[in-house]
Amino acid sequence: MNTPSNVLLLYVARGIRGFGDGFATIILPAYLTAIGFDLFQIGIVLTASLLGTAVLTLAIGAIAPRHDLRVLMLAGAGVMTLTGLAFPAFQPIALVAAIAFVGTINPSTGDIGIMIPLEHAMLAREVSDRQRTRAFARYSLIGALSMAAGTLAAAAPDFLTRHGIGEIAAFRSMFYAYGALGLLCVVLYRRLPHATLAAETPRTPLGPSRGVVYKLAALFSIDSFAGGFTVQSLLALWLFERFDLSLTAASVFFFWAGLLAAFSYPVAAWLARHIGLVNTMVFTHIPSSILLIVAAFSTSLEVTLGLLLVRAALSQMDVPTRTSYVMAVVTPAERATAASVTAVPRTLAAAISPTFAGALYAMPFSGVPLIICGTLKIVYDVALLYSFRHIKAPEESSR
Predict the structure, then answer these.
(1) Mean pLDDT estimate for the chain
(2) Among 230, 232, 221, which Cα is nearest to 380's?
């Protein structure tokens, strides 16, 4: 299949943004520590960033049906550039928190941000129904791999300081690099065509698909709330405490887990062509949840890591299929709004559960959070299958 040039531009832009996000999310708290912020102040900045990202993602989804996608994407890339320039320029907590609120650096690794609904809508517009899931699988794969590469680039300040550059200056250079990546996105987005989501301006951002979108958002939030019990940092803590796993071994494990998850995206697209989008989401998710529950009871480090690696190869196969399904079951005019409405509650729900998980990991049986996570995810999968088994994507209608 020949990939259209506009789709390639979106892929490259996703890779650039992912690379920048990969190092910026690590650099930001380290930089704030270096300039004298305490943990409470850093928490304020990160909370402002998360809340601002959520608000702006919802806002961009609401106005996108009435405006040119290309213009909005250029504006978003411009905000990315200004974010990179603004963080090193100010140090008062109020100004830094304000920059975090309106900027594009997001402490979460989820698919949320002002560019996400716009790129999703543009990508769905540029490909046919039969190509859509494969296109989103590639988009997700590029995002995951580029972010992984970006996390490695976060070590650059250490390299710079060893060669005579001051610590603060080294951190600031990374923010400038982030801003430069925003400029590269501007160049790429300028090559995209002007695009509106509907021939006529819709009265409301969500029209005939409102009920479907809200139900999907609620179900996705359950899934993300469950996932918050086993976010990477908490899962690493569990492995440290239960099996005395070393930091080096944990790094290697999570690298391979991330790699397996990333390369499961194309497999998910292939599977969806044969059994459908909803079936792919559900029938890969349930086994991964069962593996997580079994891992909670395992007393062998080797067995546990093996179970978790197999789970990693299955648990993220719903990422491209979920995005493709949302784009498929709404009208073209609603796509950007649907992307934001389903993404933001999911991210906020995932931010709640770690608070409870911390106490549960301290219980005599520390595997309780894994069991809760797996059980809630199975409940979500069953509810998703029951609610949407008869609502098929256009390319599945003949199946």
Answers:
(1) 88
(2) 221
Domain 210-396 superfamily per CATH: MFS general substrate transporter like domains (1.20.1250.20)
Average pLDDT rounded to a whole number, residues 367-377: 95
CB 342 within 8 A of CB 326: yes
Residue keyed to tokens 């928190």: 97
Q: How far is CA 223 from the centre of its chain?
A: 14
5-190 CATH pick, 3.10.270.10, 1.25.40.10, 3.30.300.130, 1.20.1250.20? 1.20.1250.20
Q: Where are the domains of the chain?
A: 5-190, 210-396
State how far the Cα of 14 lies from the Cα of 9, in Å rounded to an integer.
9
| C-alpha–C-alpha distance, residues 288 and 310, integer Å | 8
Residue with tokens 């991210």: 347
The closest of 106, 79, 183, 132 to 347, measured between CA atoms, is 106
Residues in Cβ contact with 240 at an 8 Å cutoff, skipping those fewer than 6 apart: 250
Q: Band the pLDDT of 353: cuts 50, 70, 90.
A: confident
b vs e for 67-102, b when ≥16 Cβ sit within 10 Å of the residue's Cβ? bebbebbbbbbbbbbbbbebbbeeeebeebbbbbbb
- What's the pLDDT score for residue 348? 79
Kindly tell me if the per-residue pLDDT of 110 is higher than 70.
Answer: no
In the 8-state DSSP scheme, what is residue 195?
A: -
* Burial class of residue 116, CB neighbours in 10 A (0-12, 13-18, 19+): buried
**pLDDT computed for residue 135 by the predictor:** 92
> For residue 296, how far is the Cα from the chain centroid?
26
Confidence (pLDDT) at 185: 96
The owner of tokens 């979106």 is 10
DSSP assignment letter at 230: G
- For 199, the 3-state DSSP assignment is coil
Alpha carbons 156 and 177: distance in angstroms, whole number: 11
Q: Please say whether the beta carbons of 340 and 57 come within 8 A.
A: yes
Q: What is the pLDDT of residue 114?
A: 85
Distance of CA 19 to the CA centre of its chain: 13
